[in-house]
Amino acid sequence: MGVDIGSDAVKLVRCRRRGPTWELQASTVIRRARPWPSLDPRRSEPTSSAGEMCAVVSANRHWRSGQVACAPPMAICEHRVVHAMAGSEAELRQQVEQEFGVHGAHVECEFWPSKIPTDDGIHLNVVWIRSDWGRQIAADHRRAGLSCSLLDDPATVIARAVDLSDQGTNGNPIAAVDWGYSGVTLCVVCQGTAEYVRRLEFAGLRELTQHIAQELGLSAKEAHEVLFSVGLPGSRTSRDTSELANVVADNLAAPLDRLADEVKKCLTFLNSHARDLAPVAIQLLGGGATLKNSDHFFAEKVGLPSSVWSLPSADHSTAARASYPAPLLASAAALSLVHC
Fold first, then answer.
1. Distance between terminal CA atoms of the chain?
2. Which is it for strands 2-5 and 68-71: parallel, antiparallel or unpaired?
């Protein structure tokens, strides 16, 4: 089973391998009564998700069986590309800890080689999470009667999800845009590996909803409904031209343009410094990917072919079992298949 912990919801998915492909067996999304506020990976105190997990297990005990792989929210992880001098794993870890100003006794840290070239030494992709957050997540699983055997890096999970999709990568770099509640994660995936990760702490669904609520004098729930009813500005053929849609488009222009500009800056950097990692397409995951015209928006604003993450099309029963939009389940599905 895969458990994807988010700021707004906890997603649980059970999948199984089926020959060269895979299928979804069960899925559920439990939204938090109160979404988590903005989190700081260095300062925010651990927050429990046990209530959401217990609600799932108590409603249907089949969720208790099997091993669990889990991913924490990207907002409590810190990702960075670090320059280091070549050495043993212990020497590299020491350099990483010095760069971040953390100690191994207090954080869970992983690193892997980056393909971004350097004149001397090497570049490492580094991710770390505070150990107290890891202990909180493990305790939440135990309280719900679940056995969590793996706490995985969210970027690595995104890379696996991209490989699972029908679109795949065909060996070419893909820019995965995981559009969540608290922010957006850009993850360039090449041959199953997260090669470049950038976290954008703006333009998440919370911020977009707040813009609409303030402009139209609505509650957060009402603004959320408006956002998902109208969607994003898309191509001329797909665009909603109603007065409400025009108001929403004008109101969201600033954060959406900023998001598109930041994605383009990242792609420009890769084109200049690591051409082998320059993406040929964009794939959208997360709650933002379920907005109408999300793929059209990125295709027009960024200039790359864009698609929304989907379940395997070969298995029609999989689609029938999906009670929630596929992009919401992408990371949890990738986690579920770790042990398969």
1. 10
2. parallel
Tokens 């991209």 identify what position?
162
pLDDT in tens, 182-225: 999 999 999 889 999 999 999 999 999 999 999 999 999 999 99
CB 258 within 8 A of CB 299: no
Name the token pair of 211.
């813009």
CA distance 115 to 122: 9
- What single letter denotes the amino acid at residue 185? T
The string of pLDDT tens digits covering residues 64-113 is: 777 899 999 999 999 999 999 999 999 999 999 888 887 766 898 999 99
Beta strands 174-179 and 281-285: pairing type? parallel
Per-chain mean pLDDT for the chain: 90
Residue-level pLDDT at 333: 96
Residue 90: which region, alpha, beta or left (left: phi > 0; alpha: psi -120 to 50)? Answer: alpha
- Domains of the chain plus CATH, in order, are 167-309 (3.30.420.40)
pLDDT > 70: percent of the chain: 93
> How far apart are the C-alpha atoms of 53 and 257, rounded to whole Å?
36
Q: In the numeric block, which tokens belong to residue 63?
A: 């969720």
Number of H helices, E strands in the chain: 10, 13
Q: CA-CA distance, 154 to 146, in Å (whole number)?
A: 20
DSSP state letter for 183: -
**Region of 135 on the Ramachandran plot (φ > 0 left; ψ -120 to 50 alpha; else beta):** alpha
